[in-house]
Amino acid sequence: MIFRIFWLVCAVNPLTLFKCLNDETRLVMVLLLQQYGELCVCDLMAALEESQPKISRHLAQLRSAELLSSEKRGQWVYYRLHPQLAPWAVQIIATTLTANGDFITPYANRCRVLITDNPTSCC
Asked: Hey, what domains does the chain have and what are their CATH numbers?
């Protein structure tokens, strides 16, 4: 019988994390997900004022790096920070959000308006 060992913590390494956060679009997405818990593509499009293909491409990179997880609900896909992300990586993201309110505020405000105007359904 073959046993598979699954790590309880995602094996993201510092190089991968910082490469992902090096791009402004990906950095903002990660910070918004830290702040709001989960968002769909349309929330991120509104917050970043970017097209769906660009947002989806960056989300795919973040999922590939195991920084994000996703869940499909109907026709919408919701993203969140990976629930098994290493504690050191979560701490870096949380500290970055806390220390950079001026940077994230315009994006968060656009996101908040969308969520407030339409809290029960996506887009």
From this structure: 16-115 (1.10.10.10)
